[in-house]
Automatic annotation (TrEMBL):
<feature type="transmembrane region" description="Helical">
    <location>
        <begin position="6"/>
        <end position="26"/>
    </location>
</feature>
<dbReference type="InterPro" id="IPR026170">
    <property type="entry name" value="FAM173A/B"/>
</dbReference>
<dbReference type="InterPro" id="IPR025789">
    <property type="entry name" value="DOT1_dom"/>
</dbReference>
<dbReference type="Pfam" id="PF08123">
    <property type="entry name" value="DOT1"/>
</dbReference>
<feature type="domain" description="DOT1">
    <location>
        <begin position="39"/>
        <end position="85"/>
    </location>
</feature>
<keyword id="KW-0949">S-adenosyl-L-methionine</keyword>
<keyword id="KW-0472">Membrane</keyword>
<keyword id="KW-0808">Transferase</keyword>
<keyword id="KW-0812">Transmembrane</keyword>
<keyword id="KW-0489">Methyltransferase</keyword>
<protein>
    <recommendedName>
        <fullName>DOT1 domain-containing protein</fullName>
    </recommendedName>
</protein>
<dbReference type="InterPro" id="IPR029063">
    <property type="entry name" value="SAM-dependent_MTases_sf"/>
</dbReference>
<dbReference type="GO" id="GO:0031151">
    <property type="term" value="F:histone H3K79 methyltransferase activity"/>
</dbReference>
<dbReference type="GO" id="GO:0032259">
    <property type="term" value="P:methylation"/>
</dbReference>
<keyword id="KW-1133">Transmembrane helix</keyword>
Length: 179
């Protein structure tokens, strides 16, 4: 006979794994699953990017919020993260309050439906098949001079907008600007 404690542990682990799998599948369907960006990459990925306190930085699929928090702290600009996973949004908001970052905001919203027309700089770490769709969204909604930073994958149809392609700690980074 299985002990009650062992059964409860098994059920807890199964529920956790099941929830994780569901969020991975939903994330993949929406743009990308959550994969954290190594904090050591941030300075190198954003080298040469200048944001002023009056600018707006947007992270599409902000995950645990580390890039939004970093941008708010580093540049002092309004930094907005869009994320559909409720626990990641809660965690990000908690970290913003804990670090007293009033310019960091997190919205539990599908970034495909978000208005990004005020963004001066957009960061994304999506899957390849989402990049072309993102390119179309940014062309429709993005403002002139907006910088777009993509970790890992390019927007193939944006070759004329590509201003920098670099390797950072073995990871590709693409930087574009909207004419």
């Amino acid at each position: 006979m299985i002990e009650l404690g062992v059964l409860l542990i098994f059920l807890g682990v199964a529920a956790g794994v099941g929830t994780g799998v569901i969020f991975l599948i939903v994330g993949e369907m929406r743009g990308a699953p959550f994969v954290a960006t190594d904090k050591r990459l941030l300075e190198s990925m954003f080298a040469g990017i200048i944001l002023k306190p009056q600018d707006t930085f947007v992270d599409l699929g902000s995950g645990d919020g580390r890039i939004v928090l970093w941008a708010a702290k580093k540049f002092g600009c309004r930094s907005v993260g869009y994320e559909i996973h409720p626990w990641l949004v809660w965690w990000s908001r908690w970290k913003a309050r804990e670090n007293k970052l009033k310019k960091a905001e997190f919205k539990r919203e599908d970034f495909w439906k978000a208005d990004i027309s005020l963004a001066d700089c957009v960061f994304c770490y999506l899957v390849p098949r989402s990049m072309e769709r993102l390119g179309l969204k940014l062309e429709r909604e993005g403002k002139r001079g907006m910088t777009v930073i993509s970790r890992a994958f390019e927007i193939k149809r944006w070759k004329d907008k590509l201003i920098l392609r670099k390797e950072v700690m073995g990871k590709r980074v693409y930087v574009y600007t909207m004419p």
